[in-house]
Design a protein that fits this description.
The protein has helices at 2-17, 23-64, 79-113, 133-140, 150-154, 159-167, 207-249, 255-280, 292-302, 321-337, 369-374, 390-400, and strands at residues 118-122, 128-131, 171-177, 180-193, 196-205, 288-291, 306-309, 316-319, 346-351, 355-361, 404-409, 415-422. The protein has 12 helices and 12 strands. Helix 2 (23-64) runs parallel beside helix 3 (79-113), helix 7 (207-249) runs antiparallel to helix 8 and helix 10 packs antiparallel against helix 12 (390-400). The two termini are 75 Å apart. A hairpin with a 2-residue loop joins strand 3 and strand 4 (180-193). It has 434 residues and is an alpha+beta fold.
């Protein structure tokens, strides 16, 4: 058809050539007539391509809206055909990815819904947007929580649960359920979801786990105390018998040595028992202003160390003086007993906007990951004569102050034990939105 239109244009040109019109106008008339004749032909030829482009544009819009079900049929063998095939392959991949994502979301939803830990998610306005079955039973007698404000739900909850959730204070708390005291653990995290701030609360029922741990701890305490008692009482009994035999023979010259050894073993046993008593009867901390330089001076009398201070000379730390000093003495003692040279033991201190941090560093052999995981557990020790209470007591003191204690191997060898103490006793958790 295009060829016919061109021939018609040529014929018209020859007809005009025999006319009396000037060459310029004649050429213009011939071109105009040729274009008019070619336009229908061009429309017919480009209509399939236009339909294809419209289909591609519509499919792209569908992809943007999350609908990946569209595909385009075409048997073209040119570049447009390659484009159509690439589009169809993209749709297939996106459909497969969406189906896989749906399956993963379904699995995650099933796991969360049936998890024994109560899971509550609130938005920036404090409304519950998701709660699993455990949360429904804990907070609303099994009924749905979505759409209600967490503050309104807390009104009917025990006071200890209200206080823990409002303060977003992670840790253990007790509730009285059905006439019995039950222990729960609260963990909370803030994050952004779909551009908005959300708060996640995880409340785990810990009574059975704590009971098992208590039994295991008591068994370990009994084993440790029995072992230490036998280590002290057996030689005391043997030495007492030897002393009687020496006295019966009149050999009093060796009695001083026997009695000194008995006294040494008795003193060791007494110190061991006092250490357990101190751990069991640790009182609540009484915070007061502690001049750091004065505290560092007292510590240096007990154990030598290099002082790395990032605080001002007149800086003070709010803590219980006796407890903080005892915790640091325990850490410095461990650093000196690690095999590190005394000159390599360092006591560093600094602060952030919300916390003070104190770190005891040594150049000993460090700890394996297994030992680090167990080092803070009471009665755990890798030393033959160790009680396993030094680090445990330090952690108990720090956590009573609302802080935390962590251990990490140093890059160039040795161990660092860091105490982090909050400047605010209750933390800075904002109130719940209503």
């Amino acid at each position: 058809m295009l060829l016919l239109a061109m021939l018609a244009g040529v014929g018209l040109g020859r007809l005009l050539a025999g006319s009396t019109l000037a060459p310029g106008p004649m050429l213009a008339v011939a071109v105009a007539v040729s274009l008019l004749l070619c336009m229908p032909v061009a429309y017919v030829l480009t209509r399939p391509l236009a339909r294809l482009l419209r289909a591609l544009a519509g499919a792209v819009i569908s992809f943007r809206d999350g609908d990946f079900s569209f595909s385009i049929a075409s048997n073209r063998r040119d570049e447009f055909g390659d484009l159509v095939r690439a589009h169809n392959e993209l749709g297939r991949v996106l459909r497969a990815e969406r189906q896989s994502l749906f399956q993963r979301e379904l699995l995650l939803h099933t796991v969360i819904q049936n998890a024994p830990t109560a899971v509550v998610l609130t938005n920036a306005r404090g409304h519950v947007v998701h709660a699993n079955l455990a949360a429904r039973h804990l907070m609303n007698d099994g009924h749905r929580l979505e759409g209600q404000t967490l503050e309104a739900l807390l009104q009917a909850m025990p006071e200890t649960l209200q206080e823990a959730v409002r303060a977003r204070r992670e840790g253990l708390f007790a509730l009285e359920l059905q006439g019995q005291e039950e222990v729960f653990h609260l963990a909370t995290r803030s994050f952004r979801l779909h551009g908005q701030r959300h708060q996640l609360y995880l409340i785990r029922h810990m009574t059975r786990e704590i009971s098992r741990q208590e039994v295991a701890s008591w068994k370990k305490v009994i084993r440790v105390i029995s072992h230490e008692r036998n280590n002290s009482l057996a030689p005391i009994s043997s030495l007492a018998h030897s002393g009687r035999m020496l006295a019966a023979r009149g050999d009093v010259g060796r009695l001083d040595e026997v009695l000194a050894t008995i006294g040494e073993r008795a003193q060791h046993l007494g110190e061991f028992i006092r250490g357990y008593a101190a751990f069991a009867k640790l009182p609540l901390p009484r915070r007061e202003a502690i001049p750091w330089q004065a505290l560092a001076m007292r510590l240096s009398v007990q154990y030598a160390f290099r002082h790395g201070c990032e605080l001002a000379d007149d800086a003070v730390i709010q803590a219980d003086p006796a407890q903080l000093e005892q915790a640091l003495i325990n850490l410095l003692k461990n650093a000196h007993e690690s095999g590190s040279a005394a000159a390599d033991v360092e006591l560093a201190v600094g602060e952030s906007a919300r916390d003070w941090w104190i770190e005891v560093r040594d150049r000993g052999p460090g700890m394996s990951s297994q030992v680090i995981a167990s080092a803070l557990v009471p009665f755990y020790s890798t030393k033959r004569s160790g009680t396993g209470l030094g680090l445990a007591l330090a952690r108990e003191i720090v956590e009573a102050h609302g802080g935390r204690l962590s251990l990490a191997n140093r890059a160039d060898g040795g161990l660092g034990v860091r105490l982090t103490l909050p400047k605010s006793p209750e933390g800075d958790a904002p109130p719940l939105a209503t």
